[in-house]
Amino acid sequence: MTAYYPLEIEFEFNGLKQSIWPVILQDESDVILIDCGYPDFLPLLENAALRHSIQLETVTKIILTHDDMDHTGSAAALKRKYPHLEIYAFESEAPYIEGTKKSLRLAQAEATLNRLAGEEKSSAEQFIRFLESIEHVPVDRTLNDNDILPWCGGVQVIHTPGHTPGHISLYLPSEQTLIAADAVVIEDGRLEIANPGYCLDLKEAVRSVQKLLDYEISRLICYHGGIFQGDAKKALQQLVRDYETMEERP
In sequence order, what are the beta bridge partners of 177? Predict the structure, then answer.
């Protein structure tokens, strides 16, 4: 038996209603959680899993697709509560998750301070303090591009840099399902690059979308936006064309 469950989690952040979509994969021997939300999200994760009749304590592994506060924020708390969990991440992203290297998102935020003043600067300083508060967690196993993980009939690791250098997406060949993480997001029913203003390398992010076209995708799950409704491959092609057109403009 192989199953996957997108977990819709709705919440408020900075006064705005938002939602994220971690995913649980399940087979006869393992339950794998892909990403885990902001800090203090354990109750939300537990409730979301229970809606699919899954106890969070049965999760055996966590895959962190990249080092961002809304993907890794509860990882340390999960490991503390469920010490049997094994944590996986891409090889080059692991040092940021573990805290042996300074968070690139934190460095990006700090670099903006000199250009800001007044309320904008105050908000940026508050954001930096929040990033500094994110608890780090050791990574038990590192991943590489094209690794095939031995769960659910095989889960392929796809290195999709751009949003962060070590960002990964995951592909389930048996289901023709792509778990995109932040490689793309859904906005107003359309696929878009995830938050271009925070994308550490936009051109690389577009190349990663182009890379995803090599896969047969019947279902596409985005961390922001959930399950894409429509022809995923056609939508990915259109997104690449849109950015190519932008680059061609004088």
Answer: 172, 219
Q: What is the mean pLDDT of residues 113-118?
A: 83
**Phi-psi category of residue 105: left, alpha or beta, with phi > 0 → left and psi -120 to 50 → alpha:** alpha
Binning pLDDT at 50, 70 and 90, where does residue 1 land? low
Whether pTM exceeds 0.90 = yes
Q: How far is CA 228 from the centre of its chain?
A: 16
DSSP H helices, 57-141, are 69-72, 75-81, 94-98, 104-111, 118-133
Q: What is the largest CA-CA distance in the chain?
A: 56
Taking the C-alpha atoms of residue 179 and residue 63, their distance in angstroms, rounded to an integer, is 12
Task: Characterise 4 by phi-psi region: left (phi > 0), alpha (psi -120 to 50), beta (else).
Answer: beta
Let me know: does 237 contact 213? Beta carbons within 8 Å: yes
As a whole number of angstroms, the distance between CA 89 and CA 96 comes to: 10
The closest of 130, 219, 237, 129 to 170, measured between CA atoms, is 219
What's the CA angle centered on 98, arms 152 and 60, to 5 degrees?
25
Cα–Cα distance list, 55 to 22, 42, 46, 147 (Å)? 15, 12, 7, 28
Q: Check if the beta carbon of residue 199 is closer than 8 Å to that of residue 205.
A: yes
Closest CA to 24 of 49, 55, 42, 53: 49
- Looking at residue 248, its pLDDT comes to 59
